[in-house]
Amino acid sequence: MKRAVVIGASGQIGRPVVAALARDGWEVTAASRGGGRDASWDAGVRVVRLDRSDDGAVAAAVGDGCDLVVDVVAYDALHARQLTSLADRIGSAVVVSSVEVYEDGAGRGFDTMGEPDGFPAYPVPVPETQSAVAPGTATYAARKAALEHELGLAGEKLPTTVLRAGAVHGPYSPLPRELYFVKRNLDGRRERVLAYRGESRFHPASARNIAELVRLAAARPGSRVLNAVDGDAPTAAEIGAAIDAVMGVRTRTTPVDGPPPGGTVGQTPWSVPRPVVLDMSAAERELGHRPAPYAAGLPETVEWLTRALRERDWRERFPVLARAYPALFDYAAEDAWRARA
Predict the structure, then answer these.
(1) Which residues contact 168 (CB under 8 A, 6 or more apart)?
(2) Alpha helix positions (H), the chain
(3) What is the DSSP letter of 279?
(4) DSSP per-residue codes, 84-99
(5) Virtual torsion, Cα 266, 267, 269, 271, nearest 10 deg
(6) Residue range 139-165, pLDDT digits in tens
(7) Distance separating alpha carbons of residues 302 and 190, to the nearest angstrom
């Protein structure tokens, strides 16, 4: 039986990754800061605590050797070096990166979004050959680029599949974008406002689709970079309609030309002025991967979010989302704008 170590196993992506590998016959060590066990995991999954900043702890998790390391929380060049320093004990690796490494060729990327005309104009869809930001330490995108760069330097010493994930969704997300529509429906808000006419497209990536990509890459080790998103890239309005269908409600949308009025009204976690749509043909060509559509994962996400909202206020339950979008549910501002419109 082949042995796999999953770093970041208790998170949104790590949970389905561990389950997918175990179902595929791998002997899995699930490593995470808390050392928790998910109910979906096979009883044979070994659970260990791991502080990612501790090089010795990472080495101990790998032990005398393993066939695969899956790292869903690697962040920068230091983390890449942790893995490459153990190359003689690791058969291959799969490491999760981000679509934020892409730039549009005119110096615009996720780091310039707050600047005038700073939102990137990517091709539709974006292939893995699209230019990337320079490796560095100043921003999330630069750190992820540095991670990829260091892993690339290892070459065949450590065959690594890098997965550039889009807007990750699914249960246990620290930033559940679907909450925008789920909470409104639960609050009885049957009228909604959507900026950019609800036509924004920010390619979602189901944690389960990413897990399937990990499973396929584990069975076919190699050095490659692949996009990791769903089989479709629905608009914000289409996402809202899909969530409405799962929840059995009917709503009415007021589309707004251009950005959110007042900076917040009609702003969703998918609201972007230009599309961010990824090309998945390389993953199909190299690994035979055919990702499920976005809506396939919605029922379990809606159920999880509905349960979470019963337990605590959304700001307490999802502080990362609340910091990113503090006015996400400013109903008074929406109503005032609607009254003036």
Answers:
(1) 12, 13, 204, 205, 206, 207, 210
(2) 14-23, 55-62, 77-84, 140-154, 179-186, 207-219, 236-247, 281-287, 298-311, 314-317, 319-324, 331-340
(3) -
(4) HTTGGGEEEEEEEEEG
(5) 90
(6) 999 999 999 999 999 989 999 999 999
(7) 17
Please report, in angstroms and rounded to a whole number, the separation of the first and last CA atoms in the chain: 65
Is 259 within 8 Å of 196 (Cβ atoms)? yes
> Which residues lie closer than 8 Å to 62 by C-beta, 6 or more apart?
5, 69, 86, 89, 90
Whether residue 228 contacts residue 165, with contact meaning beta carbons closer than 8 Å, is answered with yes
Torsions phi, psi for 4 (to 5 deg): -125, 140
pLDDT at 281: 98
- List Cα–Cα distances, 161 to 90, 140, 174, 239, 271, in angstroms: 13, 20, 25, 30, 30
Provide CB contacts within 8 A for 56, sequence distance 6+.
none
| Average pLDDT for 239-266 | 97
Q: Quick check: pTM over 0.90?
A: yes
